[in-house]
Amino acid sequence: MSRVDVEQVLHLLELLDREAPVEQLAQVRAGAATAIAVRIRQRLSRYHRRAAGLSALFDTASDLAGLQGTDAVLQSIVRRARMLLRTDLAYLTFNDPAAGLTSMRVTAGSTSALFQQVVLGMGEGLGGLVAQTARPYATADYAADTRFDHTTPIDEAVTDEGLVAILGVPLRLGQQVLGVLYAGDRAEREFSTEEVSLLSSLADHAAIALESARLLEDSRTAGETIRAHNEALRRAEAAHDRLTDLVLRGGDSDQIAAALASVLDGGIIVHDTGGVELARCGTSTRQQDSGLVAESARSGRAVTGAGLWVCAVLAGPELLGSITLSGREVLSDADRRLFERASVVTALLLLLQRSVAEAEDRVRGELITDLLTAPDRDQAGLLARGRRLGVDLRERHCVAVAEAADPRRLRSAAARALPVHSLLGVQGDLVVMVVGEDQPGTLAQRLAKELGDALDQPVTVGAAGPVTGPPALARAHTEAVKCLRAMVSLGQRGRGSDSAGLGFLGVLLGDPGDLSGYVRSTLGPVLDYDARRGTELVRTLRGYFACGGNLNRTKDELHVHVNTVVQRLDRVAALLGASWQEPERALEIQLALRLHEIVATTRPGPCTS
């Protein structure tokens, strides 16, 4: 070998050592040595690229392993793919086997909104073929490549993005193809085998990372589900203990309803078996849905309908009532079980209340019966029995009697409407109440309304009093019954009144010893005016009615001028109201005038009080 050849070979070795490009090596004229140096340089370049790719893959695998959440993994995949292959863009589509589609999920380097929203059918375009066959495909010029099933939407999206060269590889997990990972350029480009292998390796790493992210999310979801379930159980146990404690400490239906409304975050209504509302919290009054109650009683579970949840309150096979929950269209399993547990606690409460009420009602009912049937036999004993029940019969009490179409429900509703220190019993088809109040008319009106609203049917109430002592209570009961029967006969069902409220009819039915009370309620202003002024309005009224309302005959009867009669009657109208001459009112006034005359002749002094 000549000295020149040796120098050329040494120059080639120096270029190789400096990792000079192939072009520089090819310019050295060393014959076969140049060709060998070029091959060595190309092989070294491939090794370097492979080493760089492997290093990038290791970095990518490390990065993917540290990511949490599917979206973060997908974003990292497409960024790494674009960087490793030095392409204009990279993107990823996900398969939807049920719909037979693969749709764009993530892009990096894309500028086309149309491209970013493209959807491929399985087998359509390069990506559809990759998704269908689970094999990599590459094209240097997509638009001119006839190997793929071109469709207008896909071609338009590719054109809008300006894509020319595309490489797609499957994201596989076992035999399942999750999607397709792409790298693309906006100029023609032949993708080498090493590039296809590199992108496929990245896709394999990405598929594993995606599965790990999914499993992690599933694990988190499962953990949250378990925590939520445990929390629901804890809350249910605490609520059950709270409700049970309320019952054992003597709580009532209102407290149970309030506690349950708080726990379930809704409105609660408790009804008895007859549909009477026992308690309510957080909602307005509504009627019991008998259909849902029957369905719940048959199944033994809470049922839903019309936006409500209803649970029957059962004691064995016996229906005691129901609980209605509003404001919660959907109940979790835990809340539904809690709702059903509440019905068991409510059943316990109602049974306890019924036992106590039955015992107390029996005692109170017996006292009512003895008061009405034998008030004079043992007055001291009756007073003592009343005191044991918290009722002092020496105090002023009114007696009210009530009638409705359903006496059993009426009695139950009356027990809730009466003040604590009252007596309640049943005589025949009437409910009898002894209440410590002074206004029998007001009491009767209130009870008629409250009981009528509770039963959603007319309730008629007659009342009398106030009186003191057993004998007077028995007489007041008789008067109250007469008052009630009179209202029923007059077609006034659903009303409440005492005898005074019935006008002159009440005088006929009421206590004969209270005639002066009727006179005062009817003629009081006229009597007071005569007493203060020394006038004769009462005498004028008697003469006016005695003469049949004829003014001329009245002035002759009274020996005064007709104008005087007119003036006196105008004064009467001012005192009694303009309606005093209407038939019904006039009849009451005439009766009061006659009673006033009778009372005046049988008692000393004028009837002015």
TrEMBL record:
Domain GAF: 69-220
Family annotation (Pfam families): GAF, GGDEF_2, HTH_30
SMART domains cross-referenced by the UniProt entry: GAF
Similarity remark: Belongs to the CdaR family.
Name this protein carries in UniProt: GAF domain-containing protein
Species the sequence originates in: Kutzneria albida DSM 43870
Lineage summary: Bacteria, Bacillati, Actinomycetota, Actinomycetes, Pseudonocardiales
